[in-house]
Amino acid sequence: MAAISSKVVFMTTSPRTPSRMIPEIDLLYSHFQGCPWNHQTQVAFMDLLREKEFFFGKGANDPGFSARDRITRAPQTLGFVTLNPVIDLTPAGKELIASKRKEEVFLRQLLKFQLPSPIHRPTANAAGFWVKPYLEIFRLIRHFGVLQFDELMIFGLQLVDYRMFGQVVGKIEAFRKKKVENAGNYKRFVATCLYDELSDIYRDEIGQGRTKIRENKEKSTANFLRAKAHNMRDYADACFRYLRATGLVNISYKGKSISIVPEKYEEVDYFLQTVAREPYRAESISDYTAYLGNPAYPELLTDNRKYVLDKIVEEFPDLEFNRNASLAFLKDLLYGQVENRKEEILAEQIAAMKDYKLYDDISDMFGSIKQKDALYDAPLMLEWNTWRAMTMMDGGEIKANLKFDDFGNPMSTAQGNKADIVCDYGDFGVTVEVTMQLGQRQYETEGEPVARHLAKLKKEMNKPAYCLFIAPKINEACIAHFYALHKMNINYYGGHSVIVPLSLEIFEKMVEDSCKASYIPGPGQIRRFFEKSQEIATASQNETVWYRAMTEYAMNWLNN
User: Fold this and answer.
1) Pairing of strands 120-122, 2-4
2) What tens digit of pLDDT does each residue of 416-446 get?
3) What is the spatial distance between Cα 447 and Cα 442, in angstroms, rounded to a whole number?
């Protein structure tokens, strides 16, 4: 049972990307079902997880802590796992693993998440929680049409009681009026508003001198408010990500806003009208667990057979099918047709990229990525935009391991067991890995997985393969590591690993050159680029010489 001392709405922040919990809870269930959830099983789980290709990250020094962080956050909070008296999956957890329509499963669980709950007890100093947070945030978005990230962070998270809805709406409306008056000075305006609201929310703690935070011995009000502001950003970011997992919202990455997908208005309006706003009054933890883990509750509009049937007929009028089929069949049929339509949308986008029609948009996006705080979810945008650039600049079959929504918009980044982008050029392949990480963290999180993903592609394709590694700035440890892999014949990695690191600025220059060229660059230039890297590495005395030479080569890659 977790104790909540927060005075704003608590949103689960682990994992940051909801879909990443799916293989992990499947692993937990497969190997530890029926076992007690204790330090021994927690350590054993982390030991097993670290060996899996879908594992994303390093894990903390304390494996027991890492296991608890991964399982007792979103998986338990959203009712996918039970840990007492023994480890098990709830029916909702089993549905999450088995169902094709995972967005629907996530939606049901988010709509049931409530504060307080038997597994999240507020402390004496916490807010008087009486709310289903995600349900009310959906209502807030639907009310305004578009909700800015800052509006959700500063005001939406104050909705600790659903009866405060009108009060929060009023605060957002006042904020929007003042924003017009502070045009041209938005960043300072937002910072002032956030700290003013936090000062009011935590006035008792500040007044009584209870401003010490765990990470710092200093008890200053400034440090205290800074920590609370950081928490607010984390909660707002988590809220965006988990709402996005339902497939019902659009994210404006440049505008940092969220809105309901117009085609989903009817579905959203249905649950806003039918799902009770009052938290469920559980008689016991087992009663609450049964309620939370029920995969059929709450009822959604997509549970209405007539609605699903009408949707198929309306959106796919030429489709022939058995109209007397079961609801489950009709749901799967609709899902399959939407997936096919998505592929057609992506094919149209790819055709436009290959004709260089999207060059200006791709270039502008790279510019926004380089501007700190210019975008919401810059890592996702970097991965998506690099895929678009690679598709545009050469003649291979370029696949992004992103998750796209029903309309071809990026939803989440690649899973940990795959390269970000895979390029097939016929007689050779290329993986492309991108990261926003800087400094030593870049090497720690990206170094080994990059080589492993390349080795996996070599084995799958059974032909030569190379890797392009792109980041805003390349860390020296990564340069040294990738240079060494050029020289070392390691069987585990399929021989020599030709991995070329480039700063985002240099990669942009390569893209620009391909656009300005009087011909369409082909796979030959791509392969020569990597072969040149191997030649230079073989002849170079150290990594600095190699990296400098490859940077210069990339700056003029089509003329070399």
Assistant:
1) parallel
2) 678 899 999 999 999 999 999 888 888 887 8
3) 7
